[in-house]
Amino acid sequence: KELSLPSKPWPASEAIGELVLFTSGSSGEPKAIRKTLQQLDVEVSVLEHTFAEHLPHCSVVSTVSHQHIYGLLFKILWPLAASRPFLSEQIEYPETLSYYTALLPNLCLISSPAQLSRLPKALEHERQLRSPSLVFSSGGPLSFAAAQGISQCYGHLPIEIFGSTETGGIAYRRQHEADEPWQVFDRISIDQDPSDGALLLKSPYLADDEWLRCEDKIEQTENGQFRLKGRLDRIVKIEEKRLSLAQMETLLCSHAYVEQAALVVLPQFKSQLGAVVTLSALGRSVHQEQGKLSINNALKAHLLTQFERVTLPRRWRYPDILPLNTQGKRVTAQLVELFDHD
């Protein structure tokens, strides 16, 4: 049976109750973020205002958990408020997703970059006879290649959402071209810290009306949009998991084989981590006797004492010295260049 849109006006929220979500802060320790029902209601209302015209009488399915704010908002709260049916279970396999796209005439897919980047290969890069009406992605950067792959299979680009547990949604985009700028949601105001380019934010999803500094460096464009230029606090997301590069470097340097270590994000390899390590005398001896693979495995095992396997560096380089500029600072571009060739 086809559902009709509700005839009653959008329900008014009451300033009662709150939800506590936990996210990792810059120290890596869980950080409690409190959200009132009113804040969540405002965000759901903005989502409906922004995207409702693209969503016919659809059902919502998700490959992400509702235990994070993105899944909670897009998979449960927004469909509930807008009278759209949603699948309570979390879809884990492409075959299950294909089953539901064939079963339901209109579908809204809530997913993540890690899952969407693998989906085109699972679909053999072929145009699907039945496709979701809309695909959302959030939780980390979606590569241009992955966005184009989804477009090839489903006939349209996914809509990416930029935000965090603390800030809620900030902006959205579709990657018609590489490094497409982000469009700020209605009721959101942004500015830029002149000292280091950090994003400054005012949002109805926050507890007060003060400017909030975010540790994302941005480049503002003429039409009020912006481009992201990386993190300022060296907290990155690998496979949707936040980690501190500084913390991982410190752990690497504590190993007997390591003298110095630097980590860089390698966007050309789907946001993998690359590790540049100068070896100690012991490390050089082991490297000479047992080879690079032995060093790689030893350092990975060391990192697994504090970090999840999916976040570990995938590529390793062992130069005699780390590239530094005249001020003794690491030169990221030169570090990345080390991975241009195998």
Supply Rg.
22 Å
Number of strands: 17
Oligomer: single chain
Strand order of the largest sheet: 3-4-5-6-7-8
CATH architecture of the largest domain: 3-Layer(aba) Sandwich
Note the run of SSEs as H and E: EEHEHHEHEHEEEEEEEEEHEEHHEH
What level of helicity do the residues show? 25-40%
- Tally of individual helices: 9
Termini separation (Å)? 57 Å
User: Strand portion, in percent?
Assistant: 25-35%
Explained architecture:
This protein is α/β, with parallel strands linked by helices and 342 residues long. It folds into two domains: 18-233, ANL, N-terminal domain (Rossmann fold); 236-337, 2-Layer Sandwich (GMP Synthetase, Chain A, domain 3). The protein is 28% helix and 27% strand. The chain is built from nine helices and 17 strands. The protein has helices at residues 37-51, 69-81, 94-103, 113-122, 144-154, 245-253, 281-290, 292-303, 332-337; strands at residues 18-24, 30-36, 59-62, 107-111, 134-137, 159-164, 168-173, 183-184, 189-192, 198-202, 212-220, 226-231, 235-238, 241-244, 258-266, 272-279, 315-317. The strands form five sheets. Strands 3-4-5-6-7-8 form a six-stranded mixed sheet, with helices on both faces. Helix 4 (113-122) links the parallel strand 4 (107-111) and strand 5. The longest helix is centred in the N-terminal third of the chain and has 15 residues, at 37-51. It is globular.
